Amino acid sequence: MNFFEVVRFSLRGLSANKLRSALTMLGILIGVAAVILLVAVGNGSAKAISDRIEALGTNTITVMSTGRGGSSSTALTKEMADALVDAELAPDVKSVSPVVSSSSATMTYEGSDHSVATFVGTTPSWFAASTTPVGKGTAFSADDVDQGRRVVVIGQTVAEELFPGVDPIDKQVTVGGALFTIVGVLQEKSSTGFNDANDTAVAPLTAVQQVLTGYGALTSIIVEAADPDKVDAAQSEVSTILNQKLDVAASSASTPYRIQNASSLLETQTETADTFTTLLGAVAAISLLVGGIGITNIMLVTVTERTREIGIRKALGAPRRVILTQFLIEASLLSVLGGALGVAAALIGSQFEIVGVKPVIVPSSIGYAVGVSIAIGLFFGGLPAARAARLRPIDALRYE
Amino acid sequence: MSKPVLQVTDLTKIYGQGEATVHALRGVSATVHRGDYVAIMGSSGSGKSTLMNILGALDIPTSGRYLLDGVDVSKLSDGQLALARNRLIGFIFQSFNLIPRTTALANVELPLAYAGVKPKERRRRAMEALDVVGLAGRADHEPNQLSGGQQQRVAVARALVTEPALLLADEPTGNLDSKSTDDVLQVFDDLSTAGRTIVIITHEDEVGARAKRLIRLVDGSIVTDVRQSPIHLPPVGAQHKAQGRATVGGRHTL
Question: Which keywords does this Swiss-Prot/TrEMBL entry list (chain B) (predicted)?
Fold first, then answer.
């Protein structure tokens, strides 16, 4: 009796109860597809986050003040920013951009107005440091900053809101009672989540301080390192200079400012995303387990229902091994077919965006899900199969 | 004479323990030689089914020796028992015990499949066996499309397809009407005429009368063992052989 023959017996056994077999397979299918797809969604969102963070620039450091209010002793000032540009003390710093930002600026153009989510005042180096290139028109120059000229570069959302179908370059808008001339439009940035990265406007630091924020503390200082590998060196140089300026003892654990760099941000975000992915995977794994229990249940029912048949087969000389193999194959076929269909379903499902996230299939999750489903088939199917094979023919035949 | 097909010595079988002990067999000894056609008769509870199950290697005796074709069955392992059931015994049950949703041909092929016979050869031999019982025309019918008598004849074909040393039938006509009983018994007569060794269990006198040898069992012991016709001649029932063949051949179209 060869293996192929046993497979044929198993197929006949499965096809005798098509609906039952199909429903059992559906259980495994859903389990496998859920594992693969949910892990892919988790992975996809992690990837989207890391893409966004990398878009911020991996060689930039952001210095932010932790002090509340306008306390002058802890505030970041333009002087500090200037002090960071020091070839000797900070050789790894490429550029420094002091930033003030306002979230309550309303831009008006010919009677229509738009509330700009973030109105940034900075220096020209900011465009490179924050990887926010200008798409149309030009950025403002260092001269514009020195002179406090009221020029502005607006984001895509602002351009669409205020200038639908009109070229915004050289148009004049009113912000905080002052006229600003639009010199450029930022390139569209991909943005996910609630914050629209395109709902922004960038103007010279001096102009913004004059019109909107006043000459107080800076919101942050963006420092660009000379090289992505030198971010850590640049960071320590920056903190040394700032400690000096702010009279912080070298041994002091707390500083009145906070330094963030993209890679540390990336790390935290990736950790969060990994937790998220694990959680999703665990939920999906439970459904796979439930599918496995479904197989056990069906195999137990099948064995019980076919006890007489097993008795007949044994009376006709079927060895224990053949009976065991037959039922094992039946269970394995259910799980393997279900698993394969589940993989197919997951691959098809991953072509679509799910809750705003483009799933990115993790190849190992396919192997894992299919492996587990086969193991479930063999293990949970093995139990009833072993029971069937152990039956004494006389007991099996007497079974009603 | 050659070695006996079946030889049992002092066979006992006890069910249960303590006060509930039932002595189903109390020392049964018998020898069946090649070509014999033995009917074992007894009333309900006489132990004949127990004896049958032991002879068919489906059950094991509490004590005693059972030689099947010279092999001591009690010493066989599980795998060897399966082999013995496959090669040495053809079992026919009262309730037919065909595998449901499986064609007559596939049912007859089954023991050959377990014996490892190649599909082509298997098909040929299964068709031959179905032809012997007059059901070659119903090869692709499933059990629920066949009458009781036809199902039992398929079961007989399945039992004899492996050319076993011994055909064992447990009340083969118990579930059949008189016409089907005739059909099935005719098949047994033909097989006996062809030299097959048959042991049949029954409580019907009509069935017992056609065998060459009649053993009566009462309360787990043999009370009479009568030879009704010589072992080397066709059984009494086969005297209408030519006519019977025609009947079997004709009825399968019903």
Answer: ATP-binding, Nucleotide-binding, Transport
The candidate with the shortest Cα–Cα distance to A349, out of A44, A36, A26, is: A36
Which of B91, B101, B114 lies nearest to residue A1, judging by beta carbons? B114
Domain assignment of residue A10, given as a range:
3-52+268-398
What is the per-residue pLDDT across A246-298, written as a single tens digit (0 to 9) for each? Answer: 777 655 556 778 887 777 777 777 788 888 888 888 888 888 888 888 888 88
CA–CA separation, B70 vs B166, rounded Å?
A: 12
Q: A33 in a domain, yes or no?
A: yes
Is B9 inside a domain boundary?
Answer: yes
- Record: contact B114-A319, CB cut-off 8 A: yes
The answer to whether the Cβ–Cβ distance between A397 and B99 falls below 8 Å is no
Residues A71, A215, single domain; the answer is yes
Distance of residue B131 Cα from the nearest chain A Cα, in angstroms: 20
Asked whether residue B252 is domain-assigned, the answer is: no
pTM of the model: 0.66
Angle at which helix B178-193 crosses helix B119-132, to 10 degrees, equals 120
Is B198 part of a structural domain of the chain? yes
Residue B23 sits in a domain whose CATH number is 3.40.50.300
**A114 and A44 assigned to the same domain:** no
Q: Within a domain: residue A123?
A: yes
* B164-173 residue pLDDT tens: 889 999 888 8
Residues of chain B in contact with residue A308, where contact means CB-CB under 8 angstroms, are 97
In a shared domain, residues A158 and A247: yes
Find chain B residues with C-beta within 8 A of A313's C-beta.
99, 110, 114
With CA atoms as reference, the chain A residue closest to B85 would be A317
Contact A316 B83 (CB under 8 A): no
CA distance linking residue A177 with residue B116, whole number of Å: 97
Nearest-angstrom CA–CA distance, A81 and A95: 10
Same domain for A274 and A166: no
- At B248 the pLDDT is 44
Q: Model confidence over B154-212: pLDDT tens digits?
A: 999 999 898 888 999 988 888 888 888 888 888 889 888 888 899 999 888 888 888 99
